[in-house]
Amino acid sequence: MNAHEQAREHLLIAAKEFDRCIKCGKCRSVCPVFRVMANELFVARGKLKIAQMVADGTLPITKRVREALDECLICKTCTANCPSGVRTEEVVLRLRWYITTMKGLHFVKAIIFRFILWQRWPLTIGAKCIGLAQRIFFGIGPKNPVRLLFPLFGISHRRNFPKFALRSTLGKYPEVVPAVGKPKMRVGYFVGCAANFIYTKTADAVIDVLTHYGYEVVIPKAQKCNGTPVFANGDYDGAKKFMEHNFALFDRYKLDAIVVACSSCGLSLKKEIAHFIPDTAQRREFTGKVYDIHEFIEKHITLAPKDLAPLNKSVTYHDPCHLGRGQGVTKEPRAILKKIPGVNFVEMKNPDVCCGGAGSYSVTHYTNSVAINRQKTTDIKNADTELVATGCPICVMHMQDNLIQNNLPQQTTFVIELLAESLRKKRETEPVR
Ligand code: SF4
Ligand code: SF4
Question: What domains, with CATH codes, occur in the chain?
Fold first, then answer.
């Protein structure tokens, strides 16, 4: 099947979902984009109609059609609430794949996906340069004039970014980090771009917790982006290359399990991969081995109070869309938090409502992503904890930005970092091994 035939197939599959829609309007009451835009074009039902009309040739691919498809967080809230089981986020993705194949990939995206992300060395150098600039210019704080340059790169001058690391995770660690004691398992670690270049402490935490509990950690140096930003932006063929690369790479290491500490990377390696790699026993074996880090800990590790030091912090938890609705992982992160001594866990209202981050959406559609986040910021404020823990780097970044914009003192963090902090504190005061 050539690329155009394949694109047409994506369009037809998307259009078929229209027939299952009973036009009940339930999606209007739950879609975060509809909540701020109040326009039928931007809700699930509207997107299904677009798919149907593009497929039967009554609607050309206009700027407005592209705009409607870009206004989707792929948050799966409509799918989770649809009485007919319509999978709108898949319709949106397939339409994006169709349009990009037929009309071509924007040259800036082509450079980013096909060169910068694929080669990875430009990202390594770029991240280091940004990290240095952030330190020299005092972290590009809210009043720093350097912010005035942000719009040149299509970024709002109001946006707050975390510090980029000067040394990437993949550059810092050897390929195999031995377990403490006799290894129980050989566990591969899919790092993901955020934990490689920005949130390297999350990677430290994953490696620390796993090795402490007797797991050998394998971090294949040649791993690349999982392909989520690539396929979410319509580049099906580009994403296929990333999927095939990581699939073949991790397969070579003969691993017992593969852990991921980023909700979108986990979703793509467990489920989205099915769009790109044929259904074989090898693929099923691979996806069956992929665990979100919280899931892995809850399944394999006993967190005994004697191994953990008290943290004395109040913490609430935000469910990332791609972890909760995407992978069904909701109990595990909460269970871990509750096992850390001294953590006062407070459930916020609506913990599973999308924070508006949604990958590059919070950069390309900043005003809307901030408007979508308003409810989340209110719920965090009312939970009145010191920390908001979660399992997705984009949520950490976007929620923190909005807390700063609202002059709120809460800090966002990762569940795994809190667990590692408790373990380290215990080791410092009373070595256990
Ligand atoms: S909730 Fe589902 S069935 Fe109802 S209008 Fe939306 S997409 Fe259609
Ligand atoms: S995936 Fe989320 S943003 Fe997209 S249509 Fe559904 S509810 Fe709205």
Answer: 3-103 (1.10.1060.10), 107-153 (no CATH), 169-299 (3.40.50.1860), 303-429 (3.40.50)
